[in-house]
UniProtKB/TrEMBL annotation:
InterPro entries: A-D-PHexomutase_a/b/a-I, A-D-PHexomutase_a/b/a-I/II/III, A-D-PHexomutase_C, A-D-PHexomutase_C_sf, A-D-PHexomutase_CS, AMG1_II, AMG1_III, PAGM. It catalyses: N-acetyl-alpha-D-glucosamine 1-phosphate = N-acetyl-D-glucosamine 6-phosphate. This is Phosphoacetylglucosamine mutase. Belongs to the phosphohexose mutase family. It comes from Champsocephalus esox (pike icefish). Residues 456-527 form the Alpha-D-phosphohexomutase C-terminal domain. The keyword Iron does not apply. The lineage of its organism: Eukaryota, Metazoa, Chordata, Craniata, Vertebrata.
Length: 545
């Protein structure tokens, strides 16, 4: 039987509901799990074609990350562990939306456009999160790969960043590390332990961290990793999935958006805590002070901590490397101000979605990229890595330079450069705090966030909202940006923008201002403007107080 006959036969087992149209969004397809079986099968097909064209291993991760348990989704991973290229996102959408009888034509169209050599071998790595639907959906991906004669390796339950890491290791013939979960723990934890040895007088209290696993895959993987940490970090794990529901009242997205601690976690004053999201590619930190006030340290604070640390090390090592921080419109105005005016680093702003930040960060020797929601990592150019490596191996160096070079080398090894990674980011942050002898309160005090608020508005078709200037301004519907401008003028130090979400069927609204009441009022007023001008559904948004 030819491969196309096999595709036809198998696609009958994974039929597309007629008329259903889905888009490859901010991070792949994402919707209610019941609607995704055909998408998964077809992404198995697409990954196989992508593997044939790149002559490399491709990754497919079954997850809906921060979305509710009922949803699911799929993220495609390119050969170096990065997000799939924009052209292939378009193919993904075409293939996903072809009606059942048009599937072969859509497939052949991609084969022709990309001049795919169908006799080339293909290999696809598949991973999944802990959602109830993930086992069935990842089987559909595997069916898609085998229908086109590709080889697959099923990694089973892994975090999204772990799958990205495996793909990169595989395609670099082990130069980036070993393509196993065990290899991942070994590489990261060894680097973390070496970094931690540079922390003088670290008490047991300072080595303690409370982790909210969002009742997801991150919790399982933290447990698995613990023995590799050799007691250099003592983790108390909450929301480990044994009772609660995935992402429900917990996890990085809940904590960031609600600006409150997750349920199911006990927090003592001053204690360092962090939350992962549903597939462990985001992390946020927080603590409560002696008066019980909650303090959030989001992706912006993480980027500031990491870039300060790296800049200091570059100075000590005498290395002239250009470091930049990449953010999105959600970055708190205070963070951008601090980075540009106090730290004097270059700051770039891109559209939401790590794929955009990742590419912008690649333009620098060292690119630190973080979304405010805690999704981010650090990229080192090849040249920067080589300079650091040479310096670390130079035996004639004086102590301070040598120490800085070795710290930089181990920092590179603890970081997962393929994509934002909650586990890797956590280890790096913990090492930096230990080395600098810094409490979470001192870290928080580097700058003070402007009060802010994020809201969601339901509209009948969120695509009516179009934006420009890295999503900071709306170009449609008519009158919306003017309305926002007028509202923003009412408040001091205010800023607001709206954008259609690429992972949920909502419009997102962001506002910041001098006081929390002003930020809340502005966010509400902008939500009303969206509701009225962009076809809101389900009743007008209510004021927050
Ligand atoms: C995904 C993307 C992130 C993005 C987030 C929210 O995160 O990977 O880069 O910030 O969605 O996107 P949107 O506002 O378009 O819904 P995750 O962690 O859910 O995969």
């Amino acid at each position: 039987m030819s491969e196309f006959q096999e595709v036809s036969k198998q696609s009958g087992v994974h039929p597309k509901p007629a008329g259903l149209v889905l888009q490859y969004g901010t991070a792949g397809f994402r919707t209610n799990a019941k609607l995704l079986d055909h998408i998964m099968f077809r992404m198995g097909l697409l990954a196989t074609l992508r593997s044939k064209t790149t002559k490399a291993t491709i990754g497919v991760m079954v997850t809906a990350s921060h979305n509710p348990e009922e949803d699911n989704g799929v993220k495609l991973v390119d050969p170096m562990g990065e997000m799939v290229s924009p052209t292939w996102e378009v193919y993904a959408t075409q293939l996903a939306n072809a009606e059942q009888e048009d599937l072969l034509a859509a497939l052949k169209d991609i084969i022709e456009k990309e001049a795919v050599n169908m006799s080339q071998e293909a290999k696809v790595f598949v991973g999944k999160d802990t959602r109830g639907s993930s086992a069935r959906l990842s089987q559909a991906v595997l069916d898609g790969v085998s229908a086109l004669g590709g080889h697959s390796k099923d990694y089973g339950l892994v975090t999204t960043p772990q799958l990205h890491y495996m793909v990169c290791c595989q395609n670099t013939q082990g130069k980036y590390g070993e393509a196993t979960v065990e290899g991942y723990y070994k590489k990261l934890c060894q680097a973390f332990i070496k970094l931690s040895k540079n922390a003088s007088n670290c008490t047991d209290d300072q080595k303690h961290l409370s982790v909210d696993g969002a009742n997801g895959i991150g919790a399982l993987k933290v447990r698995e990793m613990e023995s590799h940490l050799k007691k250099e970090l003592h983790i108390s794990l909450f929301n480990d999935g044994s009772e609660g529901k995935l992402n429900h009242q917990c996890g990085a997205d809940f904590v960031k958006v609600q600006q409150k601690p997750p349920t199911g976690m006990e927090i003592s004053p001053g204690e360092r805590c962090c939350s992962f999201d549903g597939d462990a590619d985001r992390i946020v930190y927080y603590y409560s002070d002696s008066e019980g006030t909650f303090h959030l340290l989001d992706g912006d604070k993480v980027a500031t901590l990491i870039s300060t640390f790296l800049k200091e090390l570059l100075t000590s090592a005498g290395l002239d490397l250009k470091i930049a921080v990449v953010q999105t419109a959600y970055a708190n105005g205070s963070s951008t101000n601090y980075l540009e005016n106090t730290m004097k680093v270059t700051v770039r702003c891109t559209k939401t979605g790590v794929k955009h930040l990742h590419h912008a960060a690649q333009e620098f020797d060292i690119g630190v990229y973080f979304e405010a929601n805690g999704h981010g990592t650090v990229l080192f150019s090849k040249a920067a890595e080589e300079k650091i490596q040479q310096l670390a191996e130079n035996s004639s160096l004086i102590d301070e330079k040598k120490r800085a070079a070795l710290l930089l080398q181990n920092t590179i090894n603890v970081i997962n450069q393929t994509v934002g990674d909650a586990i890797s980011d956590m280890l790096l942050i913990e090492a930096i705090l230990a080395i600098k002898g810094m409490t979470i309160h001192q870290w928080d005090a580097i700058y003070t966030d402007l009060p802010n608020r994020q809201l969601k508005v339901k509209v009948s078709d969120r695509r009516v909202i179009d934006t420009t200037d890295a999503e900071r301004r709306a170009v449609s519907p008519a009158g919306l940006q003017e309305a926002i401008d007028t509202l923003v003028k009412k408040y001091r130090k205010a800023r607001s923008f709206v954008r259609p979400s690429g992972t949920e069927d909502v419009v997102r609204v962001y506002a910041e201002a001098e006081t929390q009441d002003s930020a809340d009022d502005l966010a509400h007023e902008v939500s009303l403007a969206v509701y009225r001008l962009a076809g809101g559904v389900g009743g007008e948004p209510k004021p927050l107080h």
